[in-house]
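Structure ticket #2291
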Amino acid sequence: MTPGGSLLLNSSSMRIPIITRYGRMLNYLNTNTVTGGWVQNSGCAFDPGDGSVWSVNDTPGQAAAYNYTLGGARLKTIAGSVISPTITELEGVTVSPRDYTLWFVDDTPGYGGRLWHCDRSGAPLQAAIDLTPYGVTSAQDVEYDRSNDTLLVICNGSKKVYRLDLSGALIGSTDLSGITPQPFSWQSVTIDLDNGGWWLSGYSPNVLILVDPLTLNVVTQVAVSASDFPSGVMGALAGIAYNSRFDKQ
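Resolution: structure written out below.
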């Protein structure tokens, strides 16, 4: 395994730590000061186009996507209603490395899981893709796999990662229920671009692990409880994102 890259961690604290793959904190984004009030952070993504950070929140009725610099300055806000007036909870976001468009998942009550492909202003490029026929009951995150141009969606209800093609057709799924440690709720999946492994996160308790996607053997486990960070920096762990650069800013 190549010892490089950094990880972005999203949590209920509204502070987004950037850490090494071994858990050392490099910096954190204090998003609490720029969103206009507390919201429940969920998924996040590094933008391969401009090196910025995307974060979404699943606070009922306040769903939005935020774009920040790595220094924490807010660049853009996209209200969930811009994507669809039916969205009340946004859960995950990823950025296409091909054209830098945005992919979102929501689990708005009554829908269970939908996938949205949008331009960078949040306008949908196609109709929403309903994930519930695949067994998705509560979609939590989406990740773009640049190795084969597919999407990964993680579900905390079924405890599975689903692989879809870009039209939304199901390719297959991976059951996470046999992994130890096992959180109460799986929240996020991101691909380690240096070795192809999957970083997985969840909470109750907070879990951050790197697994081999073929065997699900745990390669690395990182300590991410609140006591492992400065006071107020880490809450219930939600979204994670991988950046192949070792950012120290």
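Closing remark: The first strand starts at residue 6 and ends at 11.
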